[in-house]
TrEMBL record:
Gene3D superfamilies: P-loop containing nucleotide triphosphate hydrolases (3.40.50.300). Belongs to the small GTPase superfamily. Arf family. Mg(2+) binds at T13, T30. It holds the Pfam family Arf. It comes from Oxylabes madagascariensis (white-throated Oxylabes). It comes from the Eukaryota. This is ARL5B protein. Keywords: GTP-binding, Magnesium, Metal-binding, Nucleotide-binding. The gene is Arl5b. Transmembrane segments: none annotated. SUPFAM superfamilies: P-loop containing nucleoside triphosphate hydrolases.
Length: 97
């Protein structure tokens, strides 16, 4: 299980569907999550793209159980919100599974 997290509009869903379809698709804000199975060199990954709106971030920790990888997507152009991303990263690292 892989979860993809990051602030809203960071590009999480775009990355998920780039992995899945190998193309860029038009997306709209994720409410809750998108789940897709992706196969890379005969290895199956269940990928969860989790909404990044402020109201949803407190629920990220409910997805941590049985997670092998976390992909944190950062919009490096949005410098005004880098500190918020940093806070969310620290919150994830402090969470005990």
């Amino acid at each position: 299980k892989v979860i993809i997290v990051g602030l809203d509009n960071a590009g999480k869903t775009t990355i998920l569907y780039q992995f899945l379809m190998n193309e860029v698709v038009h997306t709209s804000p994720t409410i809750g999550s998108n789940v897709e199975e992706i196969v890379v060199k005969n290895t199956h990954f269940l990928m969860w793209d989790i909404g990044g709106q402020e109201s949803l971030r407190s629920s990220w920790n409910t997805y941590y159980s049985n997670t092998e990888f976390i992909i944190l997507v950062v919009d490096s152009i949005d410098r005004e919100r880098l500190s918020i991303t940093k806070e969310e990263l620290y919150r994830m690292l402090a969470h005990e599974v």
